[in-house]
Protein backbone atom coordinates (compact mmCIF):
# COMPACT_ATOMS: atom_id res chain seq x y z
CA UNK A 1 0.00 0.00 0.00
CA UNK A 2 1.23 3.49 -0.86
CA UNK A 3 0.27 4.66 2.63
CA UNK A 4 2.80 2.33 4.21
CA UNK A 5 5.77 3.52 2.17
CA UNK A 6 8.46 5.01 4.39
CA UNK A 7 8.52 8.78 4.61
CA UNK A 8 11.72 10.62 5.51
CA UNK A 9 11.49 13.89 7.36
CA UNK A 10 15.24 14.05 8.05
CA UNK A 11 17.03 17.26 7.13
CA UNK A 12 20.67 18.34 7.17
CA UNK A 13 21.44 21.96 7.94
CA UNK A 14 25.14 21.97 7.26
CA UNK A 15 26.66 20.28 10.33
CA UNK A 16 23.30 19.95 12.10
CA UNK A 17 21.38 16.76 11.33
CA UNK A 18 17.74 16.57 12.44
CA UNK A 19 15.33 13.62 12.28
CA UNK A 20 12.58 16.05 11.35
CA UNK A 21 12.50 19.77 10.57
CA UNK A 22 10.27 20.83 13.48
CA UNK A 23 12.03 22.57 16.37
CA UNK A 24 10.68 24.60 19.28
CA UNK A 25 11.70 28.26 19.43
CA UNK A 26 13.76 29.69 22.27
CA UNK A 27 11.72 31.19 25.10
CA UNK A 28 8.55 29.27 24.29
CA UNK A 29 9.42 25.84 25.63
CA UNK A 30 11.43 26.58 28.77
CA UNK A 31 14.21 24.04 29.17
CA UNK A 32 12.13 21.16 27.77
CA UNK A 33 10.84 20.00 31.13
CA UNK A 34 7.91 22.41 31.32
CA UNK A 35 5.96 20.66 28.55
CA UNK A 36 7.47 17.17 28.87
CA UNK A 37 4.22 15.65 30.22
CA UNK A 38 2.52 16.59 26.94
CA UNK A 39 5.34 16.75 24.40
CA UNK A 40 8.12 14.15 24.64
CA UNK A 41 11.13 16.27 23.55
CA UNK A 42 12.56 13.25 21.74
CA UNK A 43 9.88 13.50 19.07
CA UNK A 44 11.05 16.99 18.09
CA UNK A 45 13.66 17.86 15.49
CA UNK A 46 15.48 19.83 18.15
CA UNK A 47 14.87 21.74 21.37
CA UNK A 48 16.08 25.33 21.56
CA UNK A 49 16.23 26.36 25.21
CA UNK A 50 15.41 29.72 26.75
CA UNK A 51 18.23 32.24 26.11
CA UNK A 52 21.15 31.94 28.54
CA UNK A 53 23.37 34.77 29.74
CA UNK A 54 26.60 34.57 31.75
CA UNK A 55 24.88 35.77 34.93
CA UNK A 56 21.24 35.24 35.94
CA UNK A 57 18.88 37.98 34.77
CA UNK A 58 15.78 39.18 36.63
CA UNK A 59 13.99 40.32 33.48
CA UNK A 60 11.70 43.32 33.08
CA UNK A 61 9.03 44.40 35.58
CA UNK A 62 5.45 43.27 34.86
CA UNK A 63 3.17 43.63 32.98
CA UNK A 64 5.25 41.75 30.43
CA UNK A 65 2.56 40.45 28.08
CA UNK A 66 -0.36 41.83 26.09
CA UNK A 67 -2.56 40.01 23.64
CA UNK A 68 -3.18 41.67 20.27
CA UNK A 69 -5.23 40.68 17.23
CA UNK A 70 -3.80 37.27 16.28
CA UNK A 71 -0.65 37.90 18.27
CA UNK A 72 0.98 38.71 21.57
CA UNK A 73 3.41 41.37 22.68
CA UNK A 74 6.00 40.39 25.24
CA UNK A 75 8.79 42.15 27.06
CA UNK A 76 10.28 39.44 29.25
CA UNK A 77 13.75 40.97 29.15
CA UNK A 78 15.63 37.67 28.88
CA UNK A 79 14.92 36.53 32.44
CA UNK A 80 17.01 33.39 32.82
CA UNK A 81 18.81 31.26 35.38
CA UNK A 82 22.29 32.11 34.06
CA UNK A 83 25.03 29.89 32.69
CA UNK A 84 26.00 28.08 35.89
CA UNK A 85 22.47 27.10 36.92
CA UNK A 86 21.75 26.05 33.35
CA UNK A 87 24.72 23.69 33.30
CA UNK A 88 24.09 22.37 36.82
CA UNK A 89 20.28 22.22 37.00
CA UNK A 90 18.77 22.27 33.50
CA UNK A 91 21.20 20.55 31.14
CA UNK A 92 21.45 17.28 33.15
CA UNK A 93 17.75 16.66 32.54
CA UNK A 94 18.10 17.23 28.79
CA UNK A 95 21.40 15.39 28.32
CA UNK A 96 20.15 11.77 28.27
CA UNK A 97 17.36 12.55 25.79
CA UNK A 98 17.96 11.58 22.19
CA UNK A 99 17.10 14.99 20.81
CA UNK A 100 19.52 17.69 19.67
CA UNK A 101 19.73 20.49 22.26
CA UNK A 102 20.44 23.96 20.93
CA UNK A 103 21.46 26.57 23.48
CA UNK A 104 20.32 30.09 22.74
CA UNK A 105 22.85 32.54 24.14
CA UNK A 106 22.85 36.21 24.84
CA UNK A 107 25.45 38.76 26.00
CA UNK A 108 25.63 42.45 26.82
CA UNK A 109 29.02 42.74 25.12
CA UNK A 110 30.98 40.90 22.44
CA UNK A 111 33.24 39.64 25.21
CA UNK A 112 30.27 38.07 27.05
CA UNK A 113 29.22 36.20 23.91
CA UNK A 114 32.80 34.95 23.60
CA UNK A 115 32.87 33.77 27.23
CA UNK A 116 29.53 31.99 26.84
CA UNK A 117 30.67 30.18 23.71
CA UNK A 118 33.86 29.12 25.47
CA UNK A 119 31.93 27.80 28.46
CA UNK A 120 29.34 25.95 26.38
CA UNK A 121 31.76 24.45 23.87
CA UNK A 122 32.59 20.85 24.68
CA UNK A 123 29.75 20.45 27.19
CA UNK A 124 28.25 17.01 26.76
CA UNK A 125 24.64 17.18 25.64
CA UNK A 126 24.82 20.43 23.69
CA UNK A 127 24.44 20.00 19.95
CA UNK A 128 24.48 23.57 18.74
CA UNK A 129 24.45 27.23 19.71
CA UNK A 130 21.93 29.82 18.62
CA UNK A 131 23.28 33.35 18.92
CA UNK A 132 20.59 35.78 19.97
CA UNK A 133 21.38 39.16 18.43
CA UNK A 134 17.73 40.02 18.02
CA UNK A 135 15.96 40.46 21.36
CA UNK A 136 14.01 43.73 21.27
CA UNK A 137 13.47 43.83 25.03
CA UNK A 138 16.86 44.60 26.51
CA UNK A 139 18.81 47.84 26.73
CA UNK A 140 22.31 46.59 25.92
CA UNK A 141 23.17 44.08 23.22
CA UNK A 142 20.28 42.16 21.72
CA UNK A 143 18.75 43.90 18.77
CA UNK A 144 21.45 46.58 18.85
CA UNK A 145 23.93 43.93 17.72
CA UNK A 146 21.50 42.42 15.27
CA UNK A 147 20.64 45.60 13.42
CA UNK A 148 24.23 46.71 12.75
CA UNK A 149 26.09 44.51 10.25
CA UNK A 150 29.51 45.35 11.72
CA UNK A 151 28.43 44.56 15.32
CA UNK A 152 26.66 41.40 14.17
CA UNK A 153 29.85 40.32 12.41
CA UNK A 154 31.88 40.86 15.57
CA UNK A 155 29.53 38.88 17.81
CA UNK A 156 29.31 35.93 15.47
CA UNK A 157 33.08 35.94 14.84
CA UNK A 158 33.68 35.89 18.59
CA UNK A 159 31.42 32.87 19.08
CA UNK A 160 32.73 31.11 15.97
CA UNK A 161 36.31 31.43 17.17
CA UNK A 162 35.51 29.60 20.41
CA UNK A 163 33.39 26.66 19.31
CA UNK A 164 33.23 23.83 16.82
CA UNK A 165 29.55 23.30 17.56
CA UNK A 166 27.10 24.18 14.80
CA UNK A 167 26.42 27.92 15.10
CA UNK A 168 23.00 29.36 14.31
CA UNK A 169 22.50 33.12 14.26
CA UNK A 170 18.99 34.38 15.02
CA UNK A 171 18.08 37.53 13.13
CA UNK A 172 15.78 40.41 13.97
CA UNK A 173 13.14 41.59 11.49
CA UNK A 174 13.50 45.15 12.81
CA UNK A 175 15.89 46.25 10.08
CA UNK A 176 15.50 47.81 6.64
CA UNK A 177 17.28 45.04 4.74
CA UNK A 178 17.67 41.74 6.55
CA UNK A 179 19.86 40.29 3.81
CA UNK A 180 22.65 42.74 4.72
CA UNK A 181 22.79 41.33 8.27
CA UNK A 182 22.46 37.79 6.94
CA UNK A 183 25.51 38.27 4.70
CA UNK A 184 27.53 39.85 7.51
CA UNK A 185 27.00 36.93 9.91
CA UNK A 186 27.58 34.47 7.10
CA UNK A 187 30.95 36.11 6.48
CA UNK A 188 31.62 35.79 10.22
CA UNK A 189 31.21 32.04 9.95
CA UNK A 190 27.67 31.21 11.07
CA UNK A 191 26.65 27.74 9.88
CA UNK A 192 22.93 28.43 9.87
CA UNK A 193 20.54 31.38 10.08
CA UNK A 194 17.25 31.43 11.99
CA UNK A 195 14.63 34.11 11.45
CA UNK A 196 12.63 35.98 12.49
CA UNK A 197 12.67 37.04 16.13
CA UNK A 198 9.74 39.19 17.29
CA UNK A 199 8.63 42.37 15.56
CA UNK A 200 8.96 45.46 17.76
CA UNK A 201 5.55 46.78 18.78
CA UNK A 202 3.47 48.43 21.50
CA UNK A 203 -0.05 48.85 22.86
CA UNK A 204 -1.74 51.55 24.97
CA UNK A 205 -4.51 51.47 27.58
CA UNK A 206 -6.73 54.38 26.50
CA UNK A 207 -8.34 54.69 29.96
CA UNK A 208 -5.08 55.27 31.81
CA UNK A 209 -3.10 56.41 28.70
CA UNK A 210 -0.32 54.14 29.90
CA UNK A 211 1.50 51.56 27.81
CA UNK A 212 0.23 47.99 28.26
CA UNK A 213 3.79 46.79 28.84
CA UNK A 214 5.88 48.17 31.69
CA UNK A 215 8.81 48.24 29.25
CA UNK A 216 6.62 50.39 26.92
CA UNK A 217 7.69 48.45 23.80
CA UNK A 218 7.86 44.72 23.30
CA UNK A 219 8.11 42.06 20.66
CA UNK A 220 5.11 40.88 18.65
CA UNK A 221 4.80 37.16 17.93
CA UNK A 222 2.05 34.79 16.84
CA UNK A 223 0.17 34.28 13.57
CA UNK A 224 -0.10 38.05 13.03
CA UNK A 225 3.58 38.18 12.01
CA UNK A 226 3.72 35.13 9.76
CA UNK A 227 3.55 36.93 6.39
CA UNK A 228 6.42 39.21 7.45
CA UNK A 229 8.48 36.21 8.55
CA UNK A 230 7.77 34.28 5.37
CA UNK A 231 8.76 37.21 3.16
CA UNK A 232 12.03 37.68 5.06
CA UNK A 233 12.89 33.98 4.96
CA UNK A 234 12.30 33.98 1.21
CA UNK A 235 14.57 37.03 0.78
CA UNK A 236 17.34 35.56 2.95
CA UNK A 237 17.20 32.15 1.26
CA UNK A 238 17.85 33.86 -2.06
CA UNK A 239 20.63 36.05 -0.75
CA UNK A 240 22.44 33.54 1.43
CA UNK A 241 24.59 30.42 1.01
CA UNK A 242 23.90 28.89 4.44
CA UNK A 243 20.80 26.91 5.50
CA UNK A 244 17.89 28.86 6.96
CA UNK A 245 15.50 27.96 9.80
CA UNK A 246 12.17 29.72 9.37
CA UNK A 247 10.06 30.92 12.27
CA UNK A 248 7.48 33.54 13.06
CA UNK A 249 3.79 32.82 13.61
CA UNK A 250 3.74 29.14 12.65
CA UNK A 251 0.62 27.49 14.10
CA UNK A 252 -0.13 24.67 11.65
CA UNK A 253 1.29 22.17 9.16
CA UNK A 254 0.33 24.48 6.33
CA UNK A 255 2.28 27.34 7.90
CA UNK A 256 5.35 25.11 8.30
CA UNK A 257 5.03 23.97 4.68
CA UNK A 258 4.97 27.56 3.45
CA UNK A 259 8.34 28.20 5.10
CA UNK A 260 9.80 24.97 3.71
CA UNK A 261 8.53 25.73 0.21
CA UNK A 262 10.16 29.17 0.17
CA UNK A 263 13.41 27.49 1.12
CA UNK A 264 13.72 27.11 4.90
CA UNK A 265 15.28 23.72 5.70
CA UNK A 266 13.67 23.57 9.12
CA UNK A 267 11.16 25.55 11.16
CA UNK A 268 10.75 26.62 14.76
CA UNK A 269 7.37 26.81 16.46
CA UNK A 270 7.07 29.39 19.22
CA UNK A 271 3.97 31.17 20.50
CA UNK A 272 1.71 28.39 19.18
CA UNK A 273 3.07 26.10 21.93
CA UNK A 274 1.24 28.26 24.48
CA UNK A 275 -2.05 28.00 22.62
CA UNK A 276 -1.84 24.34 21.64
CA UNK A 277 0.96 22.50 23.43
CA UNK A 278 0.57 19.54 21.04
CA UNK A 279 1.09 21.68 17.94
CA UNK A 280 4.63 20.49 17.13
CA UNK A 281 3.57 16.85 17.19
CA UNK A 282 0.58 17.68 14.98
CA UNK A 283 2.87 19.44 12.49
CA UNK A 284 5.32 16.51 12.38
CA UNK A 285 2.45 14.12 11.62
CA UNK A 286 0.93 16.66 9.23
CA UNK A 287 4.15 16.91 7.19
CA UNK A 288 4.14 13.13 6.71
CA UNK A 289 0.51 13.21 5.62
CA UNK A 290 1.24 16.01 3.17
CA UNK A 291 4.14 14.11 1.59
CA UNK A 292 1.94 11.02 1.19
CA UNK A 293 -0.80 13.07 -0.41
CA UNK A 294 1.75 14.59 -2.80
CA UNK A 295 3.17 11.17 -3.61
CA UNK A 296 6.56 12.18 -2.20
CA UNK A 297 8.82 10.23 0.14
CA UNK A 298 11.29 12.83 1.40
CA UNK A 299 10.74 16.26 2.94
CA UNK A 300 13.74 17.56 1.02
CA UNK A 301 11.69 17.19 -2.16
CA UNK A 302 9.57 20.17 -1.17
CA UNK A 303 12.21 22.46 0.36
CA UNK A 304 12.84 25.49 -1.83
CA UNK A 305 10.29 24.54 -4.47
CA UNK A 306 8.46 27.86 -4.62
CA UNK A 307 7.08 28.40 -8.09
CA UNK A 308 6.90 32.05 -9.02
CA UNK A 309 4.77 32.19 -12.18
CA UNK A 310 6.05 35.36 -13.81
CA UNK A 311 9.72 35.55 -13.01
CA UNK A 312 11.22 37.15 -9.93
CA UNK A 313 9.01 39.70 -8.25
CA UNK A 314 10.45 42.43 -6.06
CA UNK A 315 8.81 43.99 -3.05
CA UNK A 316 6.41 46.70 -4.12
CA UNK A 317 6.90 46.17 -7.83
CA UNK B 1 -0.98 18.51 33.71
CA UNK B 2 -3.36 17.20 31.07
CA UNK B 3 -4.64 18.58 27.77
CA UNK B 4 -8.25 17.45 27.40
CA UNK B 5 -11.60 18.36 25.92
CA UNK B 6 -14.26 18.73 28.60
CA UNK B 7 -18.00 18.67 28.03
CA UNK B 8 -19.88 21.73 29.23
CA UNK B 9 -22.62 20.55 31.61
CA UNK B 10 -24.12 23.99 32.21
CA UNK B 11 -23.14 27.64 31.73
CA UNK B 12 -25.49 29.75 33.83
CA UNK B 13 -25.56 33.48 34.33
CA UNK B 14 -25.73 34.00 38.09
CA UNK B 15 -25.51 37.81 38.18
CA UNK B 16 -25.18 40.53 35.53
CA UNK B 17 -21.46 39.82 35.01
CA UNK B 18 -20.88 36.42 36.62
CA UNK B 19 -21.23 32.99 35.04
CA UNK B 20 -21.12 29.57 36.58
CA UNK B 21 -19.93 26.75 34.33
CA UNK B 22 -20.00 23.01 34.97
CA UNK B 23 -17.46 20.81 33.17
CA UNK B 24 -17.25 17.05 32.77
CA UNK B 25 -13.70 15.74 32.54
CA UNK B 26 -12.96 12.84 34.91
CA UNK B 27 -9.19 12.77 34.40
CA UNK B 28 -8.72 16.43 35.25
CA UNK B 29 -11.36 16.36 38.02
CA UNK B 30 -9.50 13.58 39.81
CA UNK B 31 -6.27 15.60 39.96
CA UNK B 32 -7.37 19.10 40.99
CA UNK B 33 -6.08 20.41 44.32
CA UNK B 34 -7.67 23.46 45.99
CA UNK B 35 -6.32 26.70 44.52
CA UNK B 36 -5.15 25.21 41.24
CA UNK B 37 -6.29 26.63 37.91
CA UNK B 38 -6.98 25.72 34.29
CA UNK B 39 -5.86 27.33 31.04
CA UNK B 40 -8.95 27.42 28.84
CA UNK B 41 -8.99 27.77 25.07
CA UNK B 42 -12.13 29.81 24.67
CA UNK B 43 -12.53 28.89 21.01
CA UNK B 44 -10.79 27.15 18.13
CA UNK B 45 -8.69 29.40 15.96
CA UNK B 46 -6.16 32.07 16.86
CA UNK B 47 -8.04 35.25 17.62
CA UNK B 48 -8.23 35.64 20.55
CA UNK B 49 -4.88 33.90 20.58
CA UNK B 50 -4.05 32.92 24.12
CA UNK B 51 -5.68 30.61 26.63
CA UNK B 52 -7.33 32.21 29.65
CA UNK B 53 -6.57 31.19 33.24
CA UNK B 54 -9.53 30.30 35.47
CA UNK B 55 -9.67 29.11 39.06
CA UNK B 56 -11.47 25.87 39.80
CA UNK B 57 -14.52 26.82 41.87
CA UNK B 58 -15.80 23.48 43.14
CA UNK B 59 -15.28 19.78 42.54
CA UNK B 60 -18.32 17.54 42.48
CA UNK B 61 -17.68 15.03 45.22
CA UNK B 62 -18.85 11.86 43.64
CA UNK B 63 -16.22 9.17 44.05
CA UNK B 64 -14.05 9.48 42.06
CA UNK B 65 -14.85 13.06 41.08
CA UNK B 66 -15.73 13.42 37.40
CA UNK B 67 -16.83 17.01 37.09
CA UNK B 68 -16.12 20.46 38.44
CA UNK B 69 -17.14 24.09 38.16
CA UNK B 70 -15.67 27.45 37.24
CA UNK B 71 -17.06 30.80 38.33
CA UNK B 72 -16.00 33.66 36.05
CA UNK B 73 -16.63 37.31 35.39
CA UNK B 74 -17.12 38.60 31.86
CA UNK B 75 -14.35 41.18 31.46
CA UNK B 76 -13.28 41.03 27.80
CA UNK B 77 -13.44 39.18 24.52
CA UNK B 78 -12.33 35.83 25.86
CA UNK B 79 -14.81 35.66 28.70
CA UNK B 80 -17.60 36.98 26.45
CA UNK B 81 -16.99 34.08 24.05
CA UNK B 82 -17.02 31.72 27.01
CA UNK B 83 -20.30 33.15 28.26
CA UNK B 84 -21.90 32.42 24.87
CA UNK B 85 -21.08 28.72 25.01
CA UNK B 86 -23.90 26.23 25.45
CA UNK B 87 -24.27 23.03 27.42
CA UNK B 88 -23.01 19.91 25.57
CA UNK B 89 -20.33 21.91 23.74
CA UNK B 90 -16.71 20.95 24.17
CA UNK B 91 -14.05 23.11 25.81
CA UNK B 92 -10.31 22.49 25.57
CA UNK B 93 -8.56 22.61 28.96
CA UNK B 94 -4.93 22.50 30.07
CA UNK B 95 -4.55 21.61 33.71
CA UNK B 96 -4.69 21.37 36.60
CA UNK B 97 -1.88 23.90 36.94
CA UNK B 98 0.04 25.74 39.63
CA UNK B 99 0.52 25.18 43.32
CA UNK B 100 -2.58 25.72 45.39
CA UNK B 101 -3.60 26.29 49.01
CA UNK B 102 -2.05 24.39 51.91
CA UNK B 103 -4.12 23.16 54.85
CA UNK B 104 -3.57 25.00 58.17
CA UNK B 105 -0.85 23.57 60.38
CA UNK B 106 -3.30 23.19 63.26
CA UNK B 107 -7.05 23.24 63.86
CA UNK B 108 -8.64 26.47 65.01
CA UNK B 109 -10.09 29.63 63.50
CA UNK B 110 -9.80 29.66 59.69
CA UNK B 111 -10.37 33.02 57.99
CA UNK B 112 -11.11 33.42 54.30
CA UNK B 113 -11.24 36.81 52.60
CA UNK B 114 -12.70 37.36 49.15
CA UNK B 115 -13.13 40.44 46.97
CA UNK B 116 -15.51 40.19 44.03
CA UNK B 117 -14.66 37.34 41.66
CA UNK B 118 -11.89 36.46 44.14
CA UNK B 119 -14.51 34.18 45.72
CA UNK B 120 -13.93 31.77 42.80
CA UNK B 121 -11.26 29.41 44.25
CA UNK B 122 -12.49 29.43 47.86
CA UNK B 123 -15.44 26.96 47.85
CA UNK B 124 -13.18 24.09 46.77
CA UNK B 125 -10.78 24.98 49.59
CA UNK B 126 -13.63 25.29 52.11
CA UNK B 127 -15.12 21.92 51.16
CA UNK B 128 -11.72 20.24 51.26
CA UNK B 129 -10.91 21.58 54.74
CA UNK B 130 -14.31 20.60 56.15
CA UNK B 131 -14.28 17.14 54.57
CA UNK B 132 -10.75 16.45 55.75
CA UNK B 133 -11.79 16.95 59.38
CA UNK B 134 -10.85 20.51 60.25
CA UNK B 135 -13.36 21.78 62.78
CA UNK B 136 -12.72 25.50 62.48
CA UNK B 137 -14.46 27.72 63.39
CA UNK B 138 -14.63 29.01 59.79
CA UNK B 139 -15.23 32.65 58.89
CA UNK B 140 -15.60 34.20 55.43
CA UNK B 141 -15.32 37.95 54.87
CA UNK B 142 -16.70 38.65 51.41
CA UNK B 143 -16.72 42.09 49.79
CA UNK B 144 -18.21 43.27 46.51
CA UNK B 145 -19.11 46.46 44.72
CA UNK B 146 -22.83 45.64 44.96
CA UNK B 147 -25.02 42.81 46.25
CA UNK B 148 -24.87 41.22 42.77
CA UNK B 149 -21.22 40.29 43.40
CA UNK B 150 -22.03 38.28 46.51
CA UNK B 151 -22.72 34.85 45.04
CA UNK B 152 -22.59 31.37 46.58
CA UNK B 153 -22.94 32.70 50.13
CA UNK B 154 -25.40 29.96 51.10
CA UNK B 155 -22.89 27.34 50.08
CA UNK B 156 -20.42 28.62 52.69
CA UNK B 157 -23.17 28.86 55.31
CA UNK B 158 -24.16 25.24 54.62
CA UNK B 159 -20.55 24.23 55.27
CA UNK B 160 -20.73 25.91 58.69
CA UNK B 161 -19.04 29.21 57.84
CA UNK B 162 -19.94 32.46 59.57
CA UNK B 163 -20.21 34.82 56.58
CA UNK B 164 -19.66 38.58 56.85
CA UNK B 165 -20.78 40.53 53.80
CA UNK B 166 -19.56 43.99 52.78
CA UNK B 167 -20.61 46.06 49.77
CA UNK B 168 -19.15 49.34 48.56
CA UNK B 169 -22.65 50.77 48.02
CA UNK B 170 -24.08 49.31 51.23
CA UNK B 171 -26.69 47.35 49.26
CA UNK B 172 -26.01 44.27 51.36
CA UNK B 173 -24.15 43.72 54.61
CA UNK B 174 -21.78 46.40 55.89
CA UNK B 175 -20.91 49.38 53.76
CA UNK B 176 -17.35 50.06 52.65
CA UNK B 177 -14.32 47.96 51.83
CA UNK B 178 -13.93 44.47 53.20
CA UNK B 179 -10.42 45.19 54.46
CA UNK B 180 -11.50 48.10 56.69
CA UNK B 181 -14.21 46.10 58.46
CA UNK B 182 -12.00 43.04 58.67
CA UNK B 183 -9.26 44.95 60.47
CA UNK B 184 -11.73 46.18 63.06
CA UNK B 185 -13.19 42.70 63.51
CA UNK B 186 -9.73 41.15 63.93
CA UNK B 187 -8.89 43.66 66.65
CA UNK B 188 -11.91 42.44 68.63
CA UNK B 189 -11.18 38.71 68.44
CA UNK B 190 -9.93 36.78 71.46
CA UNK B 191 -8.57 34.01 69.23
CA UNK B 192 -6.57 35.01 66.17
CA UNK B 193 -6.98 32.97 62.98
CA UNK B 194 -4.53 30.12 62.44
CA UNK B 195 -4.41 31.11 58.77
CA UNK B 196 -5.82 33.75 56.42
CA UNK B 197 -6.71 32.64 52.89
CA UNK B 198 -7.40 35.46 50.48
CA UNK B 199 -8.27 36.13 46.85
CA UNK B 200 -9.28 39.43 45.29
CA UNK B 201 -7.98 42.62 43.67
CA UNK B 202 -4.31 43.53 44.16
CA UNK B 203 -4.92 46.45 46.62
CA UNK B 204 -7.11 44.18 48.79
CA UNK B 205 -4.52 41.41 48.75
CA UNK B 206 -1.86 43.85 49.81
CA UNK B 207 -3.90 45.07 52.80
CA UNK B 208 -4.72 41.50 53.81
CA UNK B 209 -1.03 40.53 53.64
CA UNK B 210 -0.01 43.55 55.70
CA UNK B 211 -2.72 42.85 58.31
CA UNK B 212 -1.65 39.22 58.55
CA UNK B 213 2.01 40.21 58.90
CA UNK B 214 1.23 42.70 61.69
CA UNK B 215 -0.64 40.01 63.63
CA UNK B 216 1.85 37.24 62.77
CA UNK B 217 -0.85 35.19 61.08
CA UNK B 218 0.27 33.02 58.15
CA UNK B 219 -1.43 34.20 54.97
CA UNK B 220 -2.00 32.39 51.67
CA UNK B 221 -2.97 34.65 48.81
CA UNK B 222 -4.21 33.49 45.43
CA UNK B 223 -2.75 36.02 42.98
CA UNK B 224 -3.83 37.01 39.50
CA UNK B 225 -1.67 37.92 36.49
CA UNK B 226 -1.85 38.18 32.73
CA UNK B 227 -0.61 34.80 31.53
CA UNK B 228 0.76 33.40 28.30
CA UNK B 229 1.34 29.70 28.78
CA UNK B 230 0.34 28.71 32.34
CA UNK B 231 3.22 26.23 32.71
CA UNK B 232 6.30 28.36 33.37
CA UNK B 233 7.62 28.55 29.82
CA UNK B 234 6.86 32.11 28.73
CA UNK B 235 7.81 33.94 31.96
CA UNK B 236 5.06 36.52 31.42
CA UNK B 237 3.07 36.27 34.66
CA UNK B 238 5.75 37.67 36.93
CA UNK B 239 5.12 38.73 40.48
CA UNK B 240 7.84 40.53 42.37
CA UNK B 241 8.88 38.47 45.38
CA UNK B 242 11.59 38.53 48.00
CA UNK B 243 14.68 36.96 46.48
CA UNK B 244 15.60 33.54 47.85
CA UNK B 245 19.04 33.46 49.43
CA UNK B 246 21.72 34.18 46.87
CA UNK B 247 19.23 35.16 44.16
CA UNK B 248 19.11 38.48 42.34
CA UNK B 249 16.97 41.44 43.34
CA UNK B 250 14.47 42.20 41.88
CA UNK B 251 13.28 38.62 41.89
CA UNK B 252 10.24 37.69 39.83
CA UNK B 253 8.29 34.48 40.42
CA UNK B 254 5.88 32.97 37.89
CA UNK B 255 2.32 33.22 39.19
CA UNK B 256 1.46 30.14 37.09
CA UNK B 257 4.09 27.85 38.56
CA UNK B 258 5.30 29.15 41.92
CA UNK B 259 1.72 30.34 42.55
CA UNK B 260 -1.04 31.18 42.02
CA UNK B 261 -1.07 30.84 45.83
CA UNK B 262 1.72 32.77 47.56
CA UNK B 263 2.70 33.17 51.17
CA UNK B 264 1.87 36.81 51.90
CA UNK B 265 5.38 37.33 53.31
CA UNK B 266 6.96 36.41 49.97
CA UNK B 267 5.45 39.20 47.92
CA UNK B 268 7.15 42.57 47.41
CA UNK B 269 4.21 44.96 46.95
CA UNK B 270 4.32 47.85 44.45
Keywords:
heterodimer; A: 317 residues; alpha/beta; TIM Barrel; 16 strands; 20% strand; B: 270 residues; Elongation Factor Tu (Ef-tu), domain 3; Rossmann fold; 2 domains; seven-stranded mixed β-sheet; 6 helices; 32% strand
Number of helices of chain A: 9
SS elements, strand count of chain A: 16
Instruction: Please state the structural category of chain A.
Output: alpha/beta
| CATH architecture grouping of the largest domain in chain B | 3-Layer(aba) Sandwich
What separation lies between the terminal Cα atoms of chain B? 32 Å
Average pLDDT reading of chain A:
94
The count of β-strands of chain B is 16
Using the 3D structure, state the CATH architecture of chain A: Alpha-Beta Barrel
Rounded average pLDDT of chain B: 96
Question: Most extensive chain contact?
Answer: A-B, 38 and 33 residues
For the terminal residues of chain A, how far apart are their CA atoms?
47 Å
Unreliable stretches covering 5 or more consecutive residues of chain A: none
What kind of assembly state do the chains in view correspond to?
Answer: heterodimer
* H and E string of chain A: EEEEEEHEHEHHEHEEEEEHEHEHH
Q: Residue share in helices of chain B?
A: 10-25%
Report the CATH C-level class of chain A: Alpha Beta
Which sheet architecture does the biggest sheet of chain A show?
Answer: 8 strands, parallel, barrel
How many structural domains can be distinguished in the coordinates of chain A? 1
SS element count, helices of chain B? 6
SSE arrangement:
The complex is a heterodimer of chains A (317) and B (270).
Chain A: E1 11-13, E2 16-18, E3 22-24, E4 46-52, E5 65-68, E6 71-74, H1 82-94, E7 101-105, H2 110-120, E8 128-132, H3 143-146, H4 149-160, E9 167-170, H5 178-187, E10 192-195, E11 199-202, E12 204-205, E13 210-211, E14 217-221, H6 226-239, E15 244-247, H7 253-261, E16 266-269, H8 272-275, H9 279-294
Parallel strand pairs in A: 3-4, 3-16, 4-7, 7-8, 8-9, 9-10, 10-15, 15-16
Antiparallel strand pairs in A: 1-2, 5-6, 6-14, 11-14, 12-13
Helix pairs in contact in A: 2-4, 4-5, 5-6, 7-9
Chain B: E1 2-13, E2 18-24, H1 26-29, E3 37-41, E4 52-55, E5 58-59, E6 67-73, H2 77-83, E7 90-97, E8 110-115, H3 122-131, E9 138-144, H4 153-158, E10 161-167, E11 174-175, H5 178-187, E12 195-199, H6 202-214, E13 219-222, E14 238-241, E15 251-254, E16 261-263
Parallel strand pairs in B: 8-9, 8-12, 9-10, 10-11, 12-13
Antiparallel strand pairs in B: 1-2, 1-7, 2-6, 3-4, 3-7, 5-6, 13-16, 14-15
Amino acid sequence: MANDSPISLAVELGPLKLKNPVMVASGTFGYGQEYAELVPPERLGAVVVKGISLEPRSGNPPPRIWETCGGMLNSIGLQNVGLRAFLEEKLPWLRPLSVPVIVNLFGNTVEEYRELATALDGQEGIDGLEINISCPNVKAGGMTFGSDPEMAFQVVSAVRSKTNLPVITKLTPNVTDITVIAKAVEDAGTDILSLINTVAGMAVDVQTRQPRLANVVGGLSGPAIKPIALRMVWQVVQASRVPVIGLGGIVSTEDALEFLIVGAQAVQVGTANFVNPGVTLEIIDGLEDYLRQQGLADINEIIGTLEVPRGPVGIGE
Amino acid sequence: MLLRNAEILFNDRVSPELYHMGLLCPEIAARIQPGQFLMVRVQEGFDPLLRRPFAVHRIHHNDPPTSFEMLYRVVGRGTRLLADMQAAASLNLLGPLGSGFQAPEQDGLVLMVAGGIGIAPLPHLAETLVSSGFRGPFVLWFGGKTAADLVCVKHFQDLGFAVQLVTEDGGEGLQGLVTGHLEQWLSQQDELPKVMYSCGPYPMQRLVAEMAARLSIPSQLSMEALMGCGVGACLSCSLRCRPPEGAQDPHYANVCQHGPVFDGEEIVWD
